[in-house]
Design brief:
Blueprint: E1 3-5, H1 8-20, E2 25-30, H2 36-48, E3 51-56, H3 76-85, E4 90-92, H4 96-99, H5 118-121, H6 125-140, E5 144-148, H7 152-164, E6 170-174, H8 194-199, H9 201-215, H10 221-233, E7 238-246, E8 262-269, E9 272-279, H11 283-291
Parallel strand pairs: 1-4, 2-3, 2-5, 3-4, 5-6
Antiparallel strand pairs: 7-8, 8-9
Helix pairs in contact: 6-7, 9-10
The chain binds adenosine monophosphate (AMP).
């Protein structure tokens, strides 16, 4: 049965019991307003662990002053219903004053990773993400933590933080779940009007264009970006924040695409900022590998 835990002492106590019984713990950190993307992580966690803990916490530290912290959708009761159906053991729903009591001043800075891509227009965002996930890891002590490829920069930062700080948590990254037209599921899609939602498909279309160009031998970032821009600028409500192709570990922009580099973008659709990305795979490389497997 699903247990809802809000206090830090209660979650520590429950985890102590799990550990005493030597059961493995899968952990899915979320901000709630759950959709099939989140549930794909939960389902994977269920298959690979004895117990599954999901956190729901809209983390104030990762929102900028003019961002959507207060409007962010909060659907706790229906989230719990979904998680109960999935057989989750614990929903951890801490309160901000207990997570960040007066005097809290610790920050987790990942130099050279946090200021790239989304970090440019969301300064401090990834410090907020890193600090909350580190706290959650310390409280929950999971064997495996699950993240979505949808938040690509976040996954790179998580892997780096775990390696740098010897946290001993296995990070698993699962594919982006999309609507039929290709729009990546996101809690923020709830902000989109009907026409905006149709326009939002331009993110995915532009990423597919990038992969198609790579398939036909184009490696130059400038050429690929120009085509991606055309697709996005065709949508009235769309305004590009960034389009980049980066190395999947360093997040350094690449002028020429290599196999496994990631095309990532952020686009405002009306007032809603959406992100998406695709891992660029060289078609030839796949053919070559599969013919020898
Ligand atoms: P959030 O609640 O937005 O902080 O997301 C919690 C986790 O769910 C993060 O690891 C996200 O990357 C992941 N996630 C969000 N949207 C999707 C999606 N469309 N497909 C797969 N994972 C997702």
């Amino acid at each position: 049965m699903l247990r809802v835990i809000t206090s830090l002492s209660d979650i520590k106590q429950s985890i102590k019991i799990f550990k005493g019984n030597q059961v493995s713990i899968g952990f899915v950190p979320t901000m709630g307003a759950l959709h099939e993307g989140h549930l794909s992580l939960v389902r994977q966690a269920k298959t690979e662990n004895d117990r599954v803990v999901v956190s729901i916490f809209v983390n104030p530290l990762q929102f900028g002053k003019n961002e959507d912290f207060t409007q962010y959708p909060r659907t706790f009761d229906s989230d719990c219903e979904l998680l109960s159906k999935e057989g989750v053991d614990i929903v951890f729903n801490p309160k901000a004053p207990e997570m960040y009591p007066d005097g809290f001043c610790t920050s987790v800075l990942l130099e050279r990773l946090e200021d790239k891509l989304c970090g440019k227009s969301r300064p401090g965002h990834f410090r907020g993400v890193a600090v909350v996930v580190l706290k959650l890891f310390n409280l929950i002590n999971p064997d495996i933590a699950y993240f979505g490829q949808k938040d690509f920069q976040q996954t790179v930062i998580m892997r780096r933080m775990v390696a740098d700080l010897n946290l001993g948590v296995n990070i698993k990254v699962l594919p982006t779940i999309r609507e039929i037209g290709g729009l990546a599921l996101s809690s923020r899609n709830a902000y989109l009007g009907e026409t905006e939602k149709k326009d939002a498909i331009c993110l995915y279309k532009s990423l597919i264009k990038a992969q198609t160009m790579v398939n036909s031998g184009t490696k130059n970032f400038g050429e690929i970006k120009a085509e991606m821009e055309k697709i996005i600028n065709n949508c009235k409500s769309a305004k590009i924040d960034y389009i980049s192709i980066v190395n999947p570990e360093t997040l350094e922009a690449v002028p020429e695409v290599h196999n496994g580099d990631v095309a990532a973008l952020a686009v405002r659709i009306g007032k809603t900022r959406l992100i998406d990305n695709i891992i660029l795979i060289f078609f030839i490389a796949i053919m070559f590998l599969s013919s020898y497997s």
